[in-house]
Amino acid sequence: MFKRVLIANRGEIAVRIIRALREMGIESVAVYSTADRDSLFVKLADIAVCIGGPQPADSYLNIQNIVSAAVLSGADAIHPGFGFLSENAEFARVCAECGVIFIGPEAKTIELMGNKSNARSTMKKHGVPVVPGSNQAIKNIDAALEIADQIGYPVMLKAAAGGGGKGIRAIKDREDLIKKFPDAQRETKLSFDDDDMYIEKIIQSPKHVEVQVMGDSAGNILAFPERDCSLQRGHQKMVEESPCSLINSSEREYLMSVSAKAAKAINYLNTGTFEFLMDDQHHFYFMEMNTRLQVEHPITEMVTGIDLVKMQIRVASGEKISLKQSDIKIHGTAIECRINSEDPFHNFLPQAGKIKSVHFPLGCPGARVDSAIENGSTIPPFYDSMIAKLIAHGSNRKEALAIMDRMLDEMSLVGVKSNLDFQQRLLHSPAVLKGNTTTDYIEKEFLPYWQAQLAEEKVG
């Protein structure tokens, strides 16, 4: 087992990993930018190393500085968390070259599945149903038009090396593609230093479901119950739950089985997530694989009782997975709400500033908070706006929703604006209560309703 692990990340995920390491008796090394000098994750770590200025390129994306910090601090391994360098094959490769274990898949696997076009081809070859689309990277508008004309509009234009909503454009027709392609490709190049694109057919009003897997060096693979991540705004997840209330047991077994087989086919090591779209006929289509821990991993932990971060660390240290697939059971329902420092009243504009006070709604069974903020914390303007995750776990969906409603109502945050009120109103909407929302629900239905509601309250 490792003696010391460096966390190549910040914020709540760094805190989450540090806490897991402490419980395992492993020392933690935090790396931080000058903007995060006084952050909670820096205070909690056994060792903390400043790796650069506030801009991500100077710190959390600086491979040389991070690996140097690992070597100089005597870290055996690096946990990348999510975001930043977590799906960067070069980072994993440099770690290996410097004798530091990367807690995640091998560089070649990250490379294979990180390119969405190659991932689609690979999954198709191994019998996983995929959304109709391009089978290789698209480098120019002519190639894009040829594919889109062939599969039919509307289509989704995406960054081949992308994620997090960057480079994504919904395309309604040929003229729309000609208009949007250059801007999407520029955004892709800026975000990922790679301008390859791919195109897939738009599945109208789908559900977004995903299956997390875990693989060890002996070839053992576990698949976990699905998560429903359909509540999104701007291709960014806002609320997630597990299991999906509209999926039956046979469909669940199919999703878990096909994901486990796909992971085994590519010799997958450590954790990753297969993302699928489900249409109104409950047909599933592979969309992409995230070769890292997901933001929403806590809901899987709550319904299975398995600590995924500790399992990641054990697997990376060479231990075999001790559980069998039959050991993975679902216990109730878990829901996660992402709390962001943003202003929903002004197009969800990210907010920076100092938190004067924060109260987290803990103290009852089924209530969990993953966060890195405390009274006096500063929210820098340089990073993602997510500052906390509220996780509710109940014996059934109704109970989980009730716990989450109480948590959203009780949490208070003074000093920066947040989406707390928006999230609570969202959870009260009839479609969410029924569980039949799709990926376009927030933007097409709930946002207009919410804005009209606000206008009425203002008049009143």
From TrEMBL:
It is an enzyme of class 6 (ligase). Its EC number is 6.3.4.14. It comes from Oenococcus oeni. Signal peptide: none annotated. It comes from the Bacteria. Residues 120-317 form the ATP-grasp domain. One of its GO terms (molecular function) is ATP binding. The gene is accC. Keywords: ATP-binding, Biotin, Ligase, Magnesium, Manganese, Nucleotide-binding. Residues 1-447 form the Biotin carboxylation domain. This is biotin carboxylase.
